[in-house]
Amino acid sequence: MRFVLWCLVFLSGYAAAIQQPPTLHLYTEHLPPYSYIVDGRPDGINVELMHQLCQRLELDCNITVLPWRRAYENAQHQQMSGVFSTARSAAREPLFRWVGPIASDWGYLFRLKGRTEVNPTNLEEAKNFKLAVARGDVYESYFKRHGFEFGRNMLDFATKSEPVPLFMAKRVDLLVGSKRSLRTWLRNNKLPEDSAEALFKLEDVGDNYLALNLLFPVKLAERMQLELEQMRQEGTINVLIQRYTDASNP
Fold first, then answer.
1. So which domain of life are we looking at (predicted)?
2. Smallest Cα–Cα separation from 68: which of 141, 6, 158, 140?
């Protein structure tokens, strides 16, 4: 009798274990307004989008904000993991399973308003100025492909927004980001949102996605893609963009 009871307890515990969904470890970087830390927890447009996606699919998701390079590498080495907001470029295409696009915007090169001497109209002319990029970011490889070099016309930083004070002090000539991001970065530094002006759009970089580990279950990735499409049709992404860009974010 004792043996039978033990078996029943064991089997019930086993059944509960196999019904419990695995924890998804999702990584992101400090990239206001898409992802950042507030009051000790991750927040932002795409953080909230991932939370809602996981809730709708009844998935247990743990979101962590890390320096971009660590976030990117973690997602490559852990099966039940992913990294966002990840630009889907040709070089990255075979490295992940892709779900998206999620909230993103076109990238531009920006100069400080009034610095008319910083006047490139294309990438070739931009090589004559000091450009800030984030370490390991898609724009680092993008500019390298176009002939930019560290120590000559590129400076690297931990995050995309870190060089804003140097940009304002005229020690960095060019920033890269979206118009939405730049407004947030300037606001967070207690600066007027029109302190920077866009020079020209950066082509062929790719929209932002959730990039899942290559060994991530295919069927689950497909469910996430279908649910995300449903959320897009319902207007969820646009609502989140409006909510977070209208607010004052860290």
1. Bacteria
2. 158
